Amino acid sequence: MYISEIGWNFMGDMELAKKMILKSKESGATLVKFQYWQEKYLKKGAWDEDGRREIYTSAQLNEEKIHLIKSFSEEINIPCFFSVFNKQDAKFINNLKFKRIKIPSHEIANLDLIKYCFESFEEVYLSAGASTEKEIEKIADLTQKIKIKNLTVMHCVSCYPCEMENVNLPRLISLKKYFPNFTLGLSDHSQSTIVPAIAAAFGVEVIEKHFTTDHNLPGRDNKFALLPEEFRLMVQNHKQALLALKDKGFDYQKCESDTVNNYRGRWNNIS
After folding, report:
1. How many CA atoms lie within 13 A of 90 on its CB side?
2. Angle 63-75/14-26 helices, nearest 10 degrees?
3. Of the candidates 26, 34, 41, 28, the residue with the CA atom closest to the CA atom of residue 9
4. CA-to-CA distance for 89 and 116, rounded, in angstroms?
5. β-bridge mates for residue 209, sequence order
6. Is 126 helix (H, G, I), strand (E, B) or coil?
7. Terminus of the chain with fewer CB atoms < 10 Å: N or C?
8. How many CB atoms lie within 10 A of CB 271?
9. CA triplet 193, 244, 241: central angle to 5 degrees?
10. Residue 55 has pLDDT above 90, yes or no
11. How far is Cα 52 from Cα 194, in angstroms, rounded to an integer?
12. What pLDDT is attached to residue 54?
């Protein structure tokens, strides 16, 4: 599964949002994701000094825009869903009858939100970036108390972009130990198209990458997001890796029969 994280890269321009959805599908994405928030709930912070609050306001979705995104996504047959940052926004998305939800790394310690999503949505995607092992343990314990069938736990490094030396794919081994019965994913902020292919060796089935149609668009995420041709290459690399990782057993394969039957013993051994 390949998630195109459009997020807020469309900057509130709904025609651009539709273009990004279409380009995502053409590039091999199987899901597209946006971010839903209400600016009125945003606390005061550095974003008030650097202009990000204005960007958050302009990219904020309302019910009408969400319906437009959903309608267009359904029209071209690629499901859409949303990240949320608090419980009230998760309730809003749930009331609109979406079955999928994403909990971003920013909210990894927000157990109230996580519990609500576990109880209310059919599919939950949880990014595990910027977290401690104790925080992950708490969520693993929560999965034992709440019957959740369809959970994807996604390794993530919350740097924008993430440099290659910080990708830390071996952490996936530990995540699998904490969540042995759930799907393993990768929310990758590197600018590489190879990292997801390597992650396949750790059992990663779901890949999420930020997506853009132009690196010159406003906003931080547009700068490191993959362009359509890069996203397409990333999908191809991951699919090739999955094929190469298929366990064919120890003995020789059918494709080697010609070698075994016709090439063994072709040469005389002279003592």
Report:
1. 25
2. 30
3. 34
4. 11
5. 4, 188
6. strand
7. C
8. 2
9. 15
10. no
11. 31
12. 86
Residue 4 burial (C-beta neighbours within 10 Å; 0-12, 13-18, 19+): buried
Which pLDDT band holds residue 254 (cuts at 50, 70, 90)?
Answer: very high
Q: How many helices (H) and strands (E) does the chain have?
A: 11, 8
The three-class DSSP label of residue 46 is helix
Ordered by start, the domain boundaries in the chain are 2-246
Percent of the chain with pLDDT over 70: 100
| Chain segment 137-182, per-residue pLDDT in tens | 999 999 999 989 899 999 999 999 999 999 999 999 999 999 999 9
In degrees to the nearest 10, what's the CA dihedral of 80, 187, 29, 84? 10
Query: Which pair of tokens denotes residue 24?
Result: 């995502």
- For residues 72 and 83, is the Cβ–Cβ distance under 8 A? no
Average pLDDT of the chain? 96
Q: Tell me which fold the domain 2-246 belongs to.
A: TIM Barrel (3.20.20)
For the chain, give the percent of residues with pLDDT over 90.
93
Strand runs labelled E in 163-205 = 183-188
